[in-house]
Design brief:
The protein has 3 domains: 16-148, Rossmann fold, CATH 3.40.50; 163-285, Hect, E3 ligase catalytic domain fold; 303-410, no CATH class. Helices cover 41% and strands 19% of the residues. It has helices at 29-32, 35-47, 71-81, 93-96, 100-112, 131-162, 186-200, 205-214, 227-234, 280-299, 335-340, 353-364, 371-377, 408-411, 414-429, and strands spanning 16-24, 52-61, 87-90, 116-119, 124-125, 174-176, 182-184, 243-245, 248-250, 258-260, 268-270, 312-314, 321-326, 329-334, 351-352, 378-385, 388-393, 398-402. The strands form 6 sheets. A 5-stranded mixed sheet has the order 2-1-3-4-5, with helices on both faces. A 4-stranded mixed sheet has the order 12-16-17-18, with helices on both faces. Helix 7 crosses helix 10 (280-299) and helix 8 (205-214) crosses helix 9 (227-234). The chain is extended and about 115 Å long.
Length: 430
Amino acid sequence: MIQKVVFPQKKQFPLKRTAAYARVSSGKDAMLHSLSSQVSYYNQLIQSNPEWLFCGVYADEALTGTKGNRAEFQKLLNRCRQGEIDLILTKSISRFARNTVTLLETVRELKSLGVDVYFEEQRIHSMSSDGELMLSILASYAQEESYSASENRKWQIRKDFSIGKIGSITILGYRRNAEGVLEIEPNEAELVRMIFSDYISGMGQQRIANKINEMGIPTRQGNLWTNPRIREILTNEKYIGNLMLQKYYRNNHIEKKKTRNQGELQKYYVEEAHEPIIDLETFAKAKAILAQRHEQYTHDGATNRYPLSGLITCGLCGKNYQRKQLPQGIIWMCATFLRRGKKYCPGSKQIPESILYALICDVLKLDEFDEAVFRDNIHHIVIPKPFEVQFFFHDGTSDIRHWKYPSRAESWTEEMKQAARERNQKWVEK
């Protein structure tokens, strides 16, 4: 007698959708353990596990782990938010993030999405009962390590500053040698001398910029020359062989925001630090002409009725910006654009006065606009291109700020919203 035996089917469990994240630091991990080898390692690790479904390896190359704008990291988070990932593998806490707050916020968000993060070096699962406590303790150590490394690097930079040695720098006419000293680049040095010569002979900054553009010579960054770029050269002490160091600094080791040094830290002025391109007499002449022309253009056609009158210049055509009252508020516009139309200054863009005041407060670190403080510090303002404002200070330095229009929802006041509601109500009644 033959009887068919039916064996119970083995219960199938869904595979755990698994991805990996790696971060390499330029010049450090990249030399010891290449990005490609990490990708291969995680590829093999995930695909060799029968309970895991391979969902990719995401890797960023960055100097530190403190910034939250890592492109691949953000892609991975977006996939998690879309419900496509169950498990993330990563080497260590410091590779994931050195900022304790960022780490915990990210891990908590992933935990709420049902995504587990496994830190191989520490052998911690974020979904475990004691995972968050251990992560907060270990991340604090990682953050302190980042702070210590940052402070050590600052100490080394300031030590180099004190002896006139500089780090990375991009300046027309010079190249930095292995010892950190500027050496003249002959072809570019000739262009610098031409700029000073033309300016002293009577040419304006915009005319000089136009001349160089017509010669087909771009800036060191590959851009067109503009009025403010010419002024930067005419006021740069490096061309007479001196160095003003630590004009800017990073606010902290987490945000690393570039901040203008307004006395918070010591500045270093080193004389005869390198071979000059321009002699002292030529530099002094250019400086005197700059002051004279500034005095002229500040009062030329300007009523000085408002705090910013006569102080804002279009970097594209060289004309002043003028104040204009519109129904939606006060704006400043290029005089050429305002009087002659877009054809004669197509690249210029109006800027709301409220945004200008906000940028001034930001660059001067003020809670609210103070005209006296503004005039004591800022010499004039240039709008080199749309959504960019460059502030020139009385000490010869400059600083750039960027801006954007607020969204329509942000720009509407309560009065504007109420008026809109009343109009809609009238329309409904009709």
